[in-house]
Design goal:
This protein is an alpha+beta fold. The chain contains four helices and nine strands. The strands form three sheets. The protein has a five-stranded antiparallel β-sheet, sandwiched between helices. The structure holds cobalt (II) ion.
């Protein structure tokens, strides 16, 4: 089932998400719906707050980017209650976008490599080192669980330049190919 994607301005995107209970009802169904919603919107990652649920979980699939970023080949994961336990000192500057901020693309510095612990949708525990653009996708989604969005990392000037776009997103007047929930609509 395709879910509505909550847009910038919605309070749920600004809350620190709650641990996902291990007995959360229909967890696998939620994960499947989040993947379906993400693919439908041509995204490579989607966090639970983006579908209005304040839960620490997200899905990612970077495979479509494998031509430019080989580390994304087959990189499909559902991460429940993830915790980033190491971040490299080395940082990389690359452009990002977000399904909750349609039409906005900005360059963001992120650590090049991370180590993360998480559970998959079967509640099996994993610890994994991730690098390159795959690490970037995971860090972008992880940030959603902290109540942050990627443009929180850009300069005030860059933010100012996006102000009218941001206002349109809040008002719900942005053109979007997928179903959204804006504050103003
Ligand atoms: Co995002």
């Amino acid at each position: 089932m395709i879910l509505s994607i909550y847009l910038y301005g919605q309070q749920v995107l600004r809350k620190e998400a709650e641990e996902t209970p291990e007995d959360y009802p229909q967890l696998k169904e939620l994960v499947a719906n989040m993947f379906e919603t993400m693919y439908h919107a041509d995204g490579v990652g989607l966090a639970a707050p983006q579908v209005g649920l304040s839960l620490r979980m997200f899905v990612v699939d970077g495979d479509v980017m494998a031509d430019d970023f080989p580390e994304c080949k087959g990189f499909k994961r559902a991460m429940i209650n993830p915790s980033i336990i190491e971040r490299s000192e080395e940082e990389i500057l690359l452009e990002e976008g977000c399904l909750s901020l349609p039409g906005i693309h900005e360059k963001v510095f992120r650590p090049a490599r991370i180590r993360i612990r998480y559970m998959d949708e079967n509640l099996a525990k994993h610890e994994e080192e991730i690098e390159g653009f795959a690490a970037r996708i995971v860090q972008h989604e992880y940030e959603h669980l902290e109540g942050r969005v990627f443009i929180d990392n850009i300069s005030g000037i860059r933010k100012q330049l996006n102000k009218s776009k941001l206002n349109n997103i809040i008002k719900g007047t942005t053109n979007c190919s997928y179903r959204t929930k804006a504050v103003g609509k």
